[in-house]
Amino acid sequence: MAAPVENISDTARWVAVYRAMETERPDAHFRDPHARELAGERGEQILRSMRGARGQAWAFVVRTCSIDDLLLRAVPRLGLDAVVNLAAGLDTRPYRLPLPETLKWIEVDLPGILSYKAQRLAGARPVCPVESVALDLADVGARRELFRRVGAAGKNVLVISEGLLVYLTPEQVGSLAADLHAEASFRGWILDIASPDLLKLLQRRYGKDLANAGAPLKFGPAEGTEFFRPHGWKTVEFLSTLEQAQRLGREMPMAWLFRLFLRFASEEKREKYRRFGGVALLERA
Q1: 233-240, strands of its sheet edge to edge
Q2: How would DSSP label each residue in 156-194?
Q3: CA-CA distance, 239 to 66, in Å (whole number)?
Q4: What does the alpha-carbon distance between residue 102 and residue 155 come to, in Å, rounded to a whole number?
Q5: Confidence at 2, pLDDT banded by 50, 70, 90
Q6: How far apart are CA 200 and CA 189, in angstroms?
Q7: Which domains occur in the chain, in start order?
Q8: What is the predicted pLDDT for the residue at 106?
Q9: CB within 8 A of 9, min separation 6: which ones?
């Protein structure tokens, strides 16, 4: 039997299944008409073979909604003319969100996943121009060259790194943060981040399968988004996964019991669990 996840690109198919599941709900918070096609049978196979994976859809739906929300509010506030989506995978935001036609969308990922995506979306039309850049972000020289090119062409650029940082070491994340900050036109950065406790939970649940696929889970800084301040980035907004899940009605199983526990917890512990995981908008410090 094939491994649940054979390589890092398989995680994109896995996440696409969650978007398809949400899209097919009558009370869906977003509609991604391409998700089921992009996930394919391989995506469903991954979901079936990963223990407890179907029950974790809520977390990925909340992440998607949180990034959508921050992005749509950042476009007018920062006057964005370009978005750089790092490790874009099978993301379809330029096909499904009401983005300005003048916005340029640049998606960056490995050649294989971008080629697969292009084939599956051959008949689809994005709402704004999309440029696909086949590049391994571990190639520091190549990514810096890309950032310089994009930075020189744009005045107000936003970076998105959904589902990327958790696979990097703190040193690699710091290096990426510094490279992004080196471009003055890179105004904002939307990212998802795990706490040390969440990282340990994910490692217990999925760590073995992901490590066998060459994608071990590594990044969950104790200082949270303050990790990025020495690299030139400040936190403007943080959307807690647990809070957003309650607001959206997409909570984890037994969430009511967890909320009851927090009612009697100290303020310090409540804040710790609020920061258990989430999505943040950073801007240049």
Answers
A1: 130-134, 104-109, 82-86, 157-161, 186-194, 277-284, 233-240
A2: SEEEEETTTGGGS-HHHHHHHHHHHHTSTTEEEEEEEEE
A3: 7
A4: 13
A5: low
A6: 25
A7: 10-284 (3.40.50.150)
A8: 98
A9: 89, 109, 110, 112, 113, 116
Write down the residue that tokens 């958790």 correspond to: 166
Residue 253, pLDDT > 90, answer no
The answer to whether 49 touches 17, Cβ cutoff 8 Å, is no
Give helix 255-263 / helix 241-248 axis angle, nearest 10°.
120
| Distance in angstroms (rounded) separating the CA atoms of residues 109 and 11 | 13
Which uninterrupted H or E stretch holds 17? helix 10-23
Identify the pLDDT of residue 1: 47
Q: What is the pLDDT of residues 211-232, one digit of tens each?
A: 988 899 999 999 999 999 999 9
Instruction: Give me 269's structure tokens.
Output: 């512990």
pTM of the model: 0.94
**DSSP category for residue 98:** -
